[in-house]
């Protein structure tokens, strides 16, 4: 299989798996089971993967981790909006 | 920064972020909030990332996604052990 096709399929699958978490939080407006530290560690990690992808010039890595950054930043924003309730 | 060091740091951070989920499930023996479909999608996705890493000969990708495969297979096993309770 072509490397880029493989990377894009892998990226779509791992990215898609995070969407239910975001939908659940948005619906339930409940973040008590989210760990702030872990969210910050994860955002740092996926941001570094984007940087790695840029250095290696690998589009599948940049796209899938870029998407992860967006999803996890959304979770972080939800965390601060909903933590009081 | 050296690309491999960057990839390894990124991999350690994203891998570490999954451990609390596994510990939580092992402690609480409760999998009702785990989605089987999403677990299967995620395991397929990270397995394809390992394959991508092997094709590109990139150790950080192989190691961090290989670790993800192990953690998520453990979650899958927990799912089948604890789903009845």
Automatic annotation (TrEMBL), chains A, B:
GO cellular component, one term: membrane
Residues spanning the membrane: 6-23, 35-55, 61-82
InterPro entries: SemiSWEET (IPR047662), SWEET_rpt (IPR004316)
Pfam families named among the record's database cross-references: MtN3_slv
Superkingdom of origin organism: Bacteria
Annotated keywords: Membrane, Transmembrane, Transmembrane helix
GO MF annotations, alphabetized: sugar transmembrane transporter activity
Coiled coil segments of this chain: none
Name the record gives this protein: MtN3 and saliva related transmembrane protein
Organism encoding this protein: Chryseobacterium limigenitum
